[in-house]
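User: Just a sanity check before I run the rest of the batch. Below are the C-alpha cells for the first item. I only need the designed sequence back.
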C-alpha cells in the first residue's frame, strides 16, 4: 500500500484546495445558456457517435471499456475530437495532442514527430502507450519500424492518464493514448481537400462514406491521404501515401460487424538525427550557434522507408437490453529500412564526429479482445458488469548496425557525398546484431460499476500471463556478444474508484490503481528480471454543465514506479551486453511522479470556444545506484500550460468566418540524468483562420478555406534527452487547406 508522507500530504492539501476552487467556478458557470450542435452517426464505436461536429466530448468507452459519461470514470481522461483535430490543422498525433494536459506531446521538439508518435504521460515513458480502437498498436523497445497513424483517418483520440493495466494489460503507469479511427456512417459523407504550406508542404485527402443499400444494412467508408514536404533541416524530405477502407454489416439493430483495413507507405520520413548540446544550448567557440537548418547526415547515405498494413474487425451483438458481447481483432504488419548518420560529439571548434546507423525492422502482431457486458440489480444497487479475455502475440525482427568509421563534418562548411560504408553486416559494423523478440500475453479481467443513488463505485481486477523470448546474435569489434532470454511473468492489476454525481454536474472522485511492465533480461545471478510495477492514488473533480456545452476537470495524483533497472554496484558484477562486457543491472530503482492537472473545454452559444490545460509535475528518481539519484527525470518539465480561443462571427457581414489563436508553454527541463544540462523553457503561439463559404453563399455550400499557423513567431527552442541527443524544435509552419463537402 502506498503511504503518503508529510511532504506528500502537504502537496495533497494544496491540490484539494485547487479542486475546491474549480468546484466553485463550476457552480458559477452552470448559469450560462446552452446550445447543442448537430451530430453525425458513426457505426462501430459508441463513444464516437457524438464527436463529429463537437469540440466537447461527453462519453468514452476507453476508460472503462463500457460507454459511460466521462464524469463516471474515476480517472483523468481527455478526448481530442475530430473537430479539434481539424481546427488545429494537425498533421501528426503529437500535433493533435498539443493542447491536452498531463503529457508532453512532442518530447523531441516536434520536428521528429513527423516520423514517430512519441508522447510521455505524467513524466513516464511512451513505450507501449499507444492503442488503436482499443487494441495495442506499438511493440518492441527500440523498434525503428514502429507504425505511425495519420490524423486524417482519426475520429478522436482518448487520453487516459494513470495506470490502465486493469483493462489493457501491461503498460507504464503514466497512462495510454487510444486512437479511434473513422468508421462507416449511416449518413452520406463526401469530402475532398487539397493543401499547401511552407517548407514545400503539399497534400491531398478524400473521405467517402454512407450506406450501400436503401435499408442501411451495408455501410462503407474510404479515406485516403497523400502528402509530401521538405523540412526545416536542409536536404530532408517526407512523403506519405495512406488509404483506409472499412465496411459495416448491420443485419439488425442488435448486431453489427465492421471490417477495418489500412495501408500506409512512407518513402521518406523527415529528420530524425541528433546534435550535441554545444551549439544548441550555448554557442560554439566561435561565438555562433549551429544553424537550425544544418543537416549532420548525408543525402547520399540517409534514407528511411516504412510500410505498414493492418486488417481487423469489430463485432457487437446485443441479446437483450441487459446482455451484450463484443470482440475486436487486428493484425498489423509494419516494417522499415533505415540508414542514418548521427552526431557523436563536437571536435572543437566546429567539427562533428559522426556515426553510421543501419536498421531493418519488421513487426507482426495479432491482438484480440473479447468481452461480455451485463446490467442487473441487487436490491438498491444497479450493476454494469464487464468480463473479458484478451490475447496478444507479436514477433519483432531487427538487424541493427553501428559504425563510427565515418568522415566528420564541418558545421560551418559542410561537404556531402563522401563514400560511407553501410554497417549492414558484422564485417562492416563495429556493432552488429540480429534480434528476434517474441511476446505472448493473455489476460482475464472483470469489472463492476455499481450505482447506489448518485454514488458510483468502479472496481476491477485482471490477471495476466506473459511469455517473452529474445534471441540476439551480435558482435562488438569481432567479439561474440550474443545472448538470449526466455521468461514468463504473471501479474495481477487492479483499480477501485468512487465517484459522486451531483445534480448540478459536479463529480468528485478518488481512485487507486496499479500497473505492470514485463522486463526482458537477467541480472548477475542469471535470474530473470521481475516486472516493473506501478501504483497511483488520484483524487479529482469533474464538471459537466447542465446548461452549456462544456467539460472541466481537475486532479491531483501520486504515481510510484518500482523495480526500475539501475546499475549493480556490487564488486565483480560484470555482464555481457550487446556492446561487450559491462556493469550488470539490478532492479532496485524507484521513481515518483506527483502533480496537478487542470482542463477546461467549452463551446458557447456566442460562437466562442475555449480549450485550457495546465500541468504541474513534481518528478524525482527516489532510488538509484547512479548519479541520477534525487534528480529529475530527463526531459520532464515541471510546468506545462496551454490556452486556445476560437471565435465564429455571428453577424451577417462576417458570417462564416472563424478565427482562433493559442499559446503553449513548456517549462525548463534537464537533458541529462545528472541534471547539469538545463534546457530553457519556451512559449509558442499558434493561429488559425477559417471561412465557410456556404454560410454566406448558398451556391458554395460545403466549400471551406482554412489557414493554420503553428509557432507563429518562429521561436527557436531546443529539446534534449542527452548531451549528444539534442534537437531544435519545429519552427514556424503555415498550411492552407481548401476542402469541399457534399
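Assistant: Here's the designed sequence for the first item:
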Amino acid at each position: 500500500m502506498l503511504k503518503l508522507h508529510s511532504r506528500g500530504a502537504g502537496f495533497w492539501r494544496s491540490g484539494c484546495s485547487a479542486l475546491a476552487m474549480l468546484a466553485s467556478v463550476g457552480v458559477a458557470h452552470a448559469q450560462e445558456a446552452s446550445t447543442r450542435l448537430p451530430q453525425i452517426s458513426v457505426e462501430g464505436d459508441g463513444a464516437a457517435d457524438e464527436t463529429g461536429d463537437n469540440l466537447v466530448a461527453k462519453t468514452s468507452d476507453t476508460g472503462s471499456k463500457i460507454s459511460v459519461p466521462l464524469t463516471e470514470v474515476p480517472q483523468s481522461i481527455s478526448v481530442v475530437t475530430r473537430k479539434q483535430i481539424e481546427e488545429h490543422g494537425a498533421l501528426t498525433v503529437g500535433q493533435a495532442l498539443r493542447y491536452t494536459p498531463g503529457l508532453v506531446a512532442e518530447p523531441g521538439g516536434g520536428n521528429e514527430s513527423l516520423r514517430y508518435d512519441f508522447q510521455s504521460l505524467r513524466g513516464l515513458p511512451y513505450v507501449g502507450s499507444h492503442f488503436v480502437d482499443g487494441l495495442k498498436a506499438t511493440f518492441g523497445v527500440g523498434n525503428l519500424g514502429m507504425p505511425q497513424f495519420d490524423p486524417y483517418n482519426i475520429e478522436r483520440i482518448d487520453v487516459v492518464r494513470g495506470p490502465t493495466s486493469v483493462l489493457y494489460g501491461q503498460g507504464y503507469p503514466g497512462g495510454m493514448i487510444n486512437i479511434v479511427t473513422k468508421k462507416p456512417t449511416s449518413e452520406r459523407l463526401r469530402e475532398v481537400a487539397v493543401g499547401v504550406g511552407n517548407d514545400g508542404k503539399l497534400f491531398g485527402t478524400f473521405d467517402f462514406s454512407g450506406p450501400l443499400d436503401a435499408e442501411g444494412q451495408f455501410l462503407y467508408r474510404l479515406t485516403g491521404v497523400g502528402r509530401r514536404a521538405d523540412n526545416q533541416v536542409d536536404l530532408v524530405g517526407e512523403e506519405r501515401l495512406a488509404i483506409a477502407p472499412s465496411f459495416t454489416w448491420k443485419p439488425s439493430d442488435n448486431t453489427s460487424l465492421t471490417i477495418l483495413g489500412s495501408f500506409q507507405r512512407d518513402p521518406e520520413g523527415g529528420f530524425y538525427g541528433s546534435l550535441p548540446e554545444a551549439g544548441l544550448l550555448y554557442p560554439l567557440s566561435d561565438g555562433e550557434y549551429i544553424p537550425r537548418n544544418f543537416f549532420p547526415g548525408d543525402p547520399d547515405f540517409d534514407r528511411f522507408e516504412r510500410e505498414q498494413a493492418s486488417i481487423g474487425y469489430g463485432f457487437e451483438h446485443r441479446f437483450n437490453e441487459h446482455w451484450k458481447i463484443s470482440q475486436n481483432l487486428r493484425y498489423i504488419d509494419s516494417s522499415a529500412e533505415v540508414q542514418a548518420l548521427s552526431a557523436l560529439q563536437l571536435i572543437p571548434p566546429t567539427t562533428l564526429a559522426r556515426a553510421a546507423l543501419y536498421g531493418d525492422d519488421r513487426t507482426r502482431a495479432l491482438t484480440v479482445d473479447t468481452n461480455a457486458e451485463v446490467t442487473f440489480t441487487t436490491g438498491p444497487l444497479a450493476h454494469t458488469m464487464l468480463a473479458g479475455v484478451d490475447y496478444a502475440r507479436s514477433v519483432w525482427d531487427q538487424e541493427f548496425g553501428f559504425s563510427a568509421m565515418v568522415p566528420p563534418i564541418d558545421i560551418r562548411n559542410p561537404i556531402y557525398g563522401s563514400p560511407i560504408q553501410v554497417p549492414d553486416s558484422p564485417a562492416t559494423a563495429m556493432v552488429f546484431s540480429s534480434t528476434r523478440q517474441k511476446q505472448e500475453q493473455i489476460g482475464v479481467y472483470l469489472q463492476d460499476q455499481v450505482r447506489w443513488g448518485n454514488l458510483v463505485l468502479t472496481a476491477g481486477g485482471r490477471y495476466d500471463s506473459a511469455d517473452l523470448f529474445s534471441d540476439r546474435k551480435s558482435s562488438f569489434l569481432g567479439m561474440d556478444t550474443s545472448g538470449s532470454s526466455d521468461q514468463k511473468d504473471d501479474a495481477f492489476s487492479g483499480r477501485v474508484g468512487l465517484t459522486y454525481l451531483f445534480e448540478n454536474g459536479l463529480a468528485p472522485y478518488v481512485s487507486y490503481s496499479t500497473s505492470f511492465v514485463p522486463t526482458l533480461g537477467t541480472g548477475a545471478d542469471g535470474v530473470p528480471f521481475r516486472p516493473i510495477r506501478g501504483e497511483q492514488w488520484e483524487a479529482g473533480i469533474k464538471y459537466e454543465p447542465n446548461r452549456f456545452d462544456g467539460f472541466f476537470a481537475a486532479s491531483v495524483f501520486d504515481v510510484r514506479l518500482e523495480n526500475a533497472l539501475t546499475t549493480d554496484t556490487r564488486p565483480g558484477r560484470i555482464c555481457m551486453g550487446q556492446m561487450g562486457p559491462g556493469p550488470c543491472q539490478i532492479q532496485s530503482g524507484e521513481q515518483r511522479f506527483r502533480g496537478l492537472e487542470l482542463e477546461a473545454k467549452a463551446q458557447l452559444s456566442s460562437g466562442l470556444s475555449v480549450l485550457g490545460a495546465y500541468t504541474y509535475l513534481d518528478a524525482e528518481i527516489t532510488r538509484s545506484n547512479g548519479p541520477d539519484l534525487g534528480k529529475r527525470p530527463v526531459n520532464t518539465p515541471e510546468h506545462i500550460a496551454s490556452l486556445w480561443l476560437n471565435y465564429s462571427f455571428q453577424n451577417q457581414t462576417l458570417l462564416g468566418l472563424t478565427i482562433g489563436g493559442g499559446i503553449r508553454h513548456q517549462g525548463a527541463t534537464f537533458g541529462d540524468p545528472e541534471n547539469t544540462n538545463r534546457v530553457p523553457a519556451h512559449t509558442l503561439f499558434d493561429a488559425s483562420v477559417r471561412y465557410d463559404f456556404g454560410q454566406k453563399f448558398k451556391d458554395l455550400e460545403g466549400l471551406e478555406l482554412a489557414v493554420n499557423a503553428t509557432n507563429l513567431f518562429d521561436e527557436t527552442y531546443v529539446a534534449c534527452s542527452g548531451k549528444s541527443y539534442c534537437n531544435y524544435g519545429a519552427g514556424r509552419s503555415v498550411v492552407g487547406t481548401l476542402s469541399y463537402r457534399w
